[in-house]
Design a protein that fits this description.
By secondary structure, the chain is an alpha+beta fold. It folds into two domains: 139 residues, 60s Ribosomal Protein L30, Chain: A (2-Layer Sandwich); 168 residues, Phosphoribosyl-aminoimidazole Synthetase, Chain A, domain 2 (Alpha-Beta Complex). Helices cover 34% and strands 23% of the residues. A seven-stranded mixed β-sheet has the order 8-10-7-11-9-12-13. Strands 3-6-4-5 form a four-stranded mixed β-sheet, covered by helices on one side. The protein has a two-stranded antiparallel ribbon with strand order 1-2. α3 packs parallel to α4, α5 packs across α6 and α5 crosses α9. The mean pLDDT is 94.
């Protein structure tokens, strides 16, 4: 039995792979899993493929939360993409780039979270890759799903309404709290509001299944998951669809805990909801006549749903409606390589 602090460089790639492989069991639809040059799986007629990387120092920092939560998040952010397209996730591959001095406990903890989240959502881990790096840790997950009907970002039309699931802003507040040292290195957080926001950042909970159900019912005409921030992701839908959009400031569903903490700090909670990012909720475009059906679906799925604005003719641009009037809304969401 190897001690958890054993560096992965000491046991080597093949032994680490055997350790990971021993934890992954076969499942329905998997003809060939971990161990060959490629996995062989059964999928539906229409397959969806997505991938996301979590890079140390960019998307996460060691000590900001348990390694298991990083594993859960690595899978969840991909699950959100598949659901936004109207699909159901089925198979995942996990690629790790690790410095040689990375402790074995990190890999074990990461896989604790990956396996737990996969079990919760019916996903089978079927392969991946291990590589040494001299820099940051990289956790890269690729996910394969299937769908009968897909929903794209390009389906919004003038007159459609914009809707979002859940609440926004908790994850962004969670980042601020952790940067201040709250919850670092397993430290206890006494304030329930702070715990909720930190959990929103470390262990996001996309409304899985809602996008798939909305697509099958023909209720959503466009969709995107809110990973980079409402303002930026809404503009993305506008650009893909060739329309403009407006947002009602009073209708944006700001998370209660994030709102309370922001107001306590003298900050504007709406900024967190509009620009914060990593909420992993869904933004939908739908005609007004589809809204009752979406609300019924949301009730049955136990998902909160809010109409926050609408789409209109014009250049891809956003505006914000407040009690003082209407003004341009400039996106300030996350962009890896600067504005553009």
């Amino acid at each position: 039995m190897l001690p958890p602090h054993t560096p992965v460089g000491r046991i080597g790639e093949k032994a680490l792979l055997r350790r990971i492989r021993s934890r992954i069991k076969g499942a329905r639809g998997v003809l060939v899993g971990i161990g060959d040059d490629a996995a062989a799986v059964e999928t539906g007629a229409l397959s969806l493929i997505t991938t996301d990387s979590l890079v140390e120092g960019v998307h996460f920092r060691r000590g900001f939360g348990p390694d298991a939560l990083l594993g859960r998040k690595a899978l969840s952010v991909n699950l959100s993409d598949i659901d936004a397209m109207g699909g159901v996730a089925r198979y995942a591959t996990v690629s790790l780039c690790l410095p040689s001095e990375t402790p074995l406990a990190f890999v074990d903890g990461l896989y604790d979270g990956l396996i737990e989240r996969a079990r919760e959502t019916g996903v089978q881990i079927v392969g991946g890759n291990l590589s040494r790096t001299h820099g940051a840790i990289v956790v890269d997950v690729a996910l394969v799903g299937q769908a009968d009907t897909i929903v794209r970002r390009s389906g919004a039309r003038p007159g459609h309404l914009a809707l979002v699931t859940g609440t926004l802003g908790a994850s962004a507040m969670g980042v601020l709290l952790m940067e201040e040292g709250k919850g670092r290195d397993g430290g206890l957080v006494a304030d329930e509001r702070e715990r909720r926001c930190i959990a929103g950042q470390l262990d996001p909970a996309p409304p899985l299944g809602f996008g798939h159900a909305a697509a099958r019912a023909g209720l959503a005409h466009a969709a995107i998951d809110l990973s980079d921030g409402l303002s930026g992701d809404l503009l993305n839908v506008c650009q893909e669809s060739g329309v403009g959009a407006w947002v009602d400031a009073d209708a944006v569903p700001t998370d209660d805990a994030a709102r309370s903490l922001a107001e306590q700090r003298g900050a504007d909670p709406l900024d967190l909801a509009l620009h914060g990012g990593e909420d992993y909720q869904l933004l939908l475009a739908a005609p007004a006549e589809a809204v009752p059906g979406l609300r019924d679906l949301a009730t049955r799925s136990k998902v909160a749903l809010s109409v926050i604005g609408g789409f209109r003719e014009g250049e891809p641009a956003l505006s914000l409606r407040t009690r003082a009037g209407e003004a341009p809304l400039l996106p300030r969401s996350h962009e890896h390589f600067g504005s553009g």
